Amino acid sequence: MQLLIDTLGWVGTVMYLVAYILVSLKKVEGDSPLYQGINIVAGLLLIANTYYWRAYPSLGLNVTWIAIAFFTLGRRYLVRISHVT
User: Fold this and answer.
1) How many angstroms separate the CA atoms of 85 and 76, rounded?
2) Over the range 25-50, which residues count as b (16 or more CB within 10 Å of their CB) and which as e?
3) CA 2 – CA 24 distance, rounded (Å)
4) Which of 4, 30, 50, 82 lies deepest, with the highest CB count within 10 Å?
5) Whether this model's pTM surpasses 0.90
6) CB burial class (10 A; 0-12, 13-18, 19+) of residue 84?
7) Percentage of the chain with pLDDT > 90?
């Protein structure tokens, strides 16, 4: 079980880094669904890891990171539909 949890944590970490690299290289926009989707999945994987290891400060950070991603996607959606009407 520990190997699985550690693997989830490392995959989440790599995903966060890939997302950051994509934005830094201007391959994706910071509010793009791809970037925010990667952040959501990475956050979920790291939540599993940090909860298992009882690393609650990191768990709180990842919950907040996911909330920001959903907020950003929601705002992007609302802006898009307001321009359509």
Assistant:
1) 15
2) eeebeeebeebbebbbbbbbbbbbbb
3) 33
4) 50
5) yes
6) exposed
7) 94
